[in-house]
Structures are given as structure tokens and as C-alpha cells.
Amino acid sequence: MQLILYSKPGCHLCEGLEGKLRQIKTLNVELEIRDITTRDDWFEAYQYEIPVLRLQLPEGEKTIPRFSPRISVERLAQRLEKNYQTFTNS
Fold first, then answer.
1. How does pLDDT run across 13-29, given as a tens digit for each residue?
2. N or C: which end of the chain has fewer CB within 10 A?
3. Three-class SS state of 1
4. Domains of the chain and CATH, by start
């Protein structure tokens, strides 16, 4: 599962989500962090929305609905799997 996390330095919500994503052991997660301050188009799109988590699929990126910052690592893995199934079976 290839995930893209749109983030920026100093974003505590972004750091928290990144940490939980890196703790997931039940899924094969490849995580790419994209700093929105490095590109104007990313900054314009996500400056008020970060953290934004997107799933990379052959047909392009799909946004995964936002998770509560209090979500457990186990529940996060379950929700990611469910979203992955939804996007790949539609």
C-alpha cells in the first residue's frame, strides 16, 4: 500500500499521524512524506487541510478521509485497509 502524507514542518498533527503510520506492522505500508512548503501547488491545495493522507493507485491519488488524532495504531490500520479495499474494488 503506497501512501502519501502531505505535511509541513512543525505540524504536530502531521507528526502524530506519521508516527502512527510508521508503527503499523499488519500492512505493507510504503510512506512518502511531501512537504507542502516545497511546492506552490501543494501549498495552495493543502495549506488549511494538513495532514492529508492519499493513497497512490495506478489511476492516480485518492484522498483518504481524515482520521481522529486520537485513533489507535490498530484502528488506523483497519481503516486504511477498509479504504484501500473500497478504492481498489470500485
1. 999 999 999 999 999 99
2. C
3. coil
4. 2-88 (3.40.30.10)
